[in-house]
Design a protein that fits this description.
With 252 residues, this protein is of the alpha/beta class. It contains 11 helices and 9 strands. It is globular.
């Protein structure tokens, strides 16, 4: 049976009295080699789960930092297949770390669902997050991933009704709920919404899977505050910006 690295990571963090750290990287910016090095540094710095972002030509959910990184990676010819190759190398170096493939659905569909699932399994991917794949249309992908022990990460918007939250986790394993903290696109923010704590508490009250909050988190203080009401936190734009600038990826 395939190891459940995602839920295992959250369980270990909980046992240690902290929230799980989920770190996002746009793979291929400024290069795949730099991205892999950054992944190693982030794991060494305490990340429990890595989200490896596949660059996409129309990243409508992403803010300027990640959008620019995606365009740079595409200019260098980075594809879904090359990100999976990087994932395989990262898996070899970090056998215990949870790895999520973060993508839009078009590259997955273009490759073919069965071929994609097989390639993701071979690369050591634990779960897949398709930004633009709604609950009502994810069944076909889940049917290809689940037999291989690969989870599917649902996005929970700020205005998602609680019954839809519970529906979003039905049939899923080795996964977590990605609770979006703000309305709009990704990007570091000085302040998070005043009602975020109440919203996260409500999601956790009905959730079976762990809940990780993301979008806008860029500092240790913000992460600590979020983890009073969630099981983990996601940092993306802040890390991508540092890697793009050739700096060490770490939280301020």
């Amino acid at each position: 049976m395939k190891e459940k690295r995602i839920t295992g990571a959250f369980a270990r963090a909980k046992a240690e009295g902290r929230g799980a750290f989920v770190a996002y990287l746009t793979m291929g910016c400024p290069s795949l080699e730099a991205s892999e090095k950054a992944a190693d540094e982030i794991v060494a710095g305490g990340a429990d789960v890595l989200e490896l972002g596949v660059p996409f030509s129309d990243p409508f959910a992403d803010g300027g930092v990640i959008r620019s990184a995606a365009y740079e990676a595409l200019r260098q010819g980075v594809t879904l297949d090359s990100v999976l190759e990087s994932a395989r190398r990262i898996r070899d170096r970090h056998p215990e770390t949870g790895i999520v493939l973060f993508t839009y659905y078009n590259p997955v569909l273009s490759k073919g669902l069965e071929k994609f699932a097989a390639a993701a399994d071979e690369a050591g991917i634990d779960a897949v997050l398709c930004v633009d794949l709604p609950l009502e249309e994810r069944g076909e992908l889940v049917r290809h991933l689940s037999p291989r022990g690969i989870g599917c990460i649902p996005l929970i918007a700020p205005n998602t009704p609680l019954p839809r939250v519970t529906a979003s986790e039905e049939g899923l394993d080795n996964s977590f709920l990605y609770a979006i903290t703000v309305k709009g696109i990704t990007g570091a923010r000085a302040e998070l919404p005043a009602d975020l704590a109440e919203r996260l508490d409500a999601i956790r009250s009905v959730a079976r899977l762990p809940v990780a909050a993301g979008f806008g988190i860029s500092t240790r203080a913000q992460a600590a505050e979020v983890c009073r009401h969630a099981d983990g936190f996601v940092v993306g734009s802040a890390l991508v910006r540092l890697v793009s600038e050739g700096k060490r990826p770490c939280l301020g």
